[in-house]
Design a protein that fits this description.
The chain is an alpha/beta fold. The protein has one domain: 3-Layer(aba) Sandwich (Rossmann fold). The protein contains 7 helices and 7 strands; from the N terminus they run βαβαβαβαβαβααβ. It has a 7-stranded parallel β-sheet, with helices on both faces. Helix 1 runs parallel beside helix 2 and helix 1 packs across helix 7.
Length: about 250
């Protein structure tokens, strides 16, 4: 049986930990060659790279700021230079900053939207020409939104707004890029055990778990599996959708 991502080349942003690194590892296990983008955590990216290569996979790490146009172009160029093509883009880079209404300074707003929204725009712009060339074999973009886009949590309203923008970009880009053979979808995870949620009190996580019909919070592999479906041939007739992956909480 041919691996689902045989002959595919994937670029995963935010691949130095959590959902991003788990997705990169699973893509490689499925046969893809993978570029792992990271911004400020080389140790995390190298750890994921080591897991991939130890299992016989092919991968590279690329440092850069996904929210910077020059860096986004360079990361894509490095991926194509290493593997000859690009067929899948996973926009997983992002940050989550707890802020009340009064704490939302101009600098904080710019930082949150640069990491969570501008990165999706710039990486998609840089990757789209390559994805279109390989539309028959891939041509997939999967963005990471959040279930908070559909039900903001006090203290995370700014983050929720940024992730709502990601869901909107997903639908708009799908309409615009579909004619070029590129499908664009997103996942909207609920609370997931990653470095991004380490600041949450255990009581908060316990409360989320208790309110979730499936009775727990997510692990990175729960979300990675959904991302892999949207990146795989099995999702060939899914486009412009944001899949909520939160155990039924929303």
């Amino acid at each position: 049986m041919i691996a689902p991502f045989h002959n595919q080349v994937a670029l995963v942003t935010g691949a130095s930990g959590g959902i991003g690194s788990e997705t990169a590892i699973r893509l490689a296990a499925g046969g893809a060659k993978v570029a792992l983008q990271y911004h400020s955590n080389p140790v995390g990216a190298e750890t994921a790279l080591a897991k991939i290569t130890a299992a016989g996979g092919s991968a590279i790490t690329v440092q850069g700021d996904a929210g910077n146009a020059a860096d986004a172009a360079r990361v894509v160029a490095a991926t194509v230079a290493a593997f000859g093509t690009l067929t899948i883009l996973i926009n997983g880079a992002g940050i989550s900053t707890p802020l009340s209404v009064g704490e939302m300074t101009s600098e904080a707003i710019d930082r949150e939207f640069a990491a969570n929204v501008r990165s999706v725009i710039l990486m998609t712009q840089a990757a789209a020409p390559h994805l279109a060339k390989n539309a028959a074999n891939g041509g997939r973009v999967v963005n990471v939104s959040s279930n908070l886009a559909f039900g903001p949590m006090p203290g995370l309203t700014l983050y929720s707004a940024a992730k709502a923008a990601v869901a909107s970009l997903t639908q708009g880009f799908a309409r615009e890029l579909g004619s070029r053979g590129i499908a664009v979808n997103a996942v909207a995870p609920g609370a997931t055990i990653t470095p991004m949620t380490e600041w949450l009190d255990q009581s908060v996580m316990d409360g989320i778990a208790a309110s979730t019909p499936l009775g727990r919070v997510a692990q990175p592999d729960d979300i990675a599996d959904a991302i892999l479906f949207l990146a795989s041939p099995g999702s060939r007739w899914v486009n412009g959708r944001t899949m909520i992956v939160d155990g039924g909480l929303i």
